Amino acid sequence: MDDFIGAISTGFAAFAATNLDDIVVLLLFFSQVSATFRHQHIVIGQYLGFTALVLASLPSFFGGRLFPEAWIGLLGTVPIAIGINRLLNPASDEDETPPQPEQSANSWLASLFSPQAYGVAAVTIANGGDNLSIYVPLFASCTWEDLGVILAVFFSLVAVLCYAAYRFTQVPTLAKLFTRYGNYFVPFILIGLGIYILMDSHTLESRGLTVLTVGLIGLCLIAESRDAFGDSA
Fold it and tell me: 16, 131, 173, 216: least buried by Cβ within 10 Å?
């Protein structure tokens, strides 16, 4: 019984230490909900991204690690590219109509394969360097029973985190702030998040990875520009 309670406490502590900063990003996402970017995209994307972080950490449970920290830091290029694109195309979100209230099971299933959900997942993964730094040694020291309890706590708290962020956007003052000014500061927050991830992961300390980082950002911008021109056509 003591081991069970200890595993639950460990799960809560590890999740709080690594995911409370995500609530700011989730607040921004929920404030940007529109006809093409729905609540389920955010929830599914958060779960997909968090699951990827857990899977990347699980090899330590079996005695190894999947990727070096510096290479994981390359994921910081994703929020940078998204932020630059939104900075250069600020009007794209203003023409969208309000979201529809219906959220059927089919719409949730369709969202599982939507680019919007994968965009949220990419930002979640990119912001997960601290998750890996804590989960890797945590999983390495777990028994099978402890691991099961901790993972159950983790995935339960993801839902709590998403709900808390959603409820915060329902507070009139916060909702007005994020809705009115969100489009202006979201790009800068995303770019700052990406730069922090690159620096915190020591990715830019390698000349080769620095060149690769610049190249990846360029490729992401080119791809998003082509999509934008395609939609306008």
Answer: 173
Q: Which residue type is seen at 25? A: V
Question: Which residues neighbour 65 within 8 Å (Cβ) at sequence distance 6 or greater?
Answer: 59, 136
Strand (E) positions, the chain? none
* 165 vs 102: which has the higher pLDDT: 165
DSSP letter string over 32-64?
A: T--SSS-HHHHHHHHHHHHHHHHHHHGGGGGT-
Element spanning 209, H or E: helix 207-232
Which positions ≥6 away from 119 have C-beta within 8 Å?
45, 82
| Contact predicate 131/197, CB 8 Å | no
Range of the structural domain that residue 70 is part of: 2-232
| H or E segment to which residue 129 belongs | helix 129-140
pLDDT at 6 (0 to 100): 84
- Measured CA distances, 76 to 3, 56, 69, 141, 158 (Å): 37, 16, 12, 28, 21
Over residues 93-149, the pLDDT tens digits come to 444 444 444 455 556 666 667 888 888 998 898 888 778 878 877 887 788 888 999
More confident residue, 78 or 36: 36
- Provide the phi-psi class of 225: left if phi over 0, else alpha when psi is between -120 and 50, else beta: alpha
Question: Residues 93, 22: contact at Cβ < 8 Å?
Answer: no
Domain count, the chain: 1
Please provide the average confidence, as pLDDT, over all residues in the chain.
78
What percent of the chain shows pLDDT beyond 90? 16
What's the pTM value of the predicted model, to 2 decimals?
Answer: 0.69
